[in-house]
Amino acid sequence: MGWKQRLPFLRWSMVRMAVAMPGFLKTGQIGDGREEATARYVEANARRNDVDHVLDTIDEFAREKSMLMNVGDEKGALLDAAVRRADATLALELGTYCGYGAMRIARAAPDAKVFSVEFAAANAAIARRIWAHAGLADRITCVVGTLGDGGTTMDALAKSGFAAGTLDLLFIDHDKSAYLADLLGILERGWLHTGSIVVADNVRVPGAPKYRAYMREQQGKLFDTVEHATHVEYQTLLSDLVLESDYLGP
Asked: Is 56 exposed, middle or buried (0-12, 13-18, 19+ CB in 10 A)?
């Protein structure tokens, strides 16, 4: 386990991803089939019902085949530690993609119910295939939608058990421009409790400046935040930030 040191160079699949970013924001996929290829690679190469091996296989695909927009192994270790520290029984991820982050959460919190919100139905289907292969289909639920859809998705989560003070761990890894608005929506619902932990990926690259500014403004008030200096997933050329914020209560 643990992340593997990589050479500091930009791979073509990462360049392709950067070029495809406008389309990704609309569809949730890069456009070259790498998401479907990830599911096929897992089904062909990862041991069934072995979460560790499924995660390692996705990391292998992302390093050796095509770059993926998931938290990755280096930053994933930070997420793992936050999940364990939260002692989570209910966790919410914003941004499913291919299901990698939700699996890390489920592995680190074996007694937790994990929900993941994904706006692209195609990604949700891929993630569910991978979760089934890993033996986690009964522990992770994907809700197709967005928190900014006028309340439909949040109402669906409420019907699934989300209520005041129930959410232990929130992992934000979706549309960077929606980080702050979606956090504020969750705060308005009162789902967090004192001691809940919020983890946000890619705060430097591609960047979530409004979210970062908010956490700095709320330091010692609503949140106690640590900024983890790290790297963009699966390479060491680009630095990134993961913010880990303890909710101090209203």
From this structure: middle
Please report, for the domain that includes residue 193, its CATH number: 3.40.50.150
The structure's pTM equals 0.92
> Distance between CA atoms of 250 and 232, rounded to whole angstroms?
33
- Look-up of token digits 């991820």: 93
| Residue 250 C-alpha from the chain's centroid | 25
pLDDT in tens, 61-80: 999 999 999 999 999 999 99
2 lies in some domain: no
DSSP 122-168: HHHHHHHHHHHHHT-TTTEEEEES-TTSSSHHHHHHHHTT--TT-EE
Question: Does 176 qualify as catalytic in the annotation?
Answer: yes
Is residue 203 domain-resident? Answer: yes
233 among known catalytic residues? yes
Known catalytic residue at 159: no
Q: What is the residue type of 211?
A: Y
Q: Is 175 a catalytic residue?
A: no
**Domain span holding position 16:** 12-247
Tell me the mean pLDDT in the region 88-108: 98
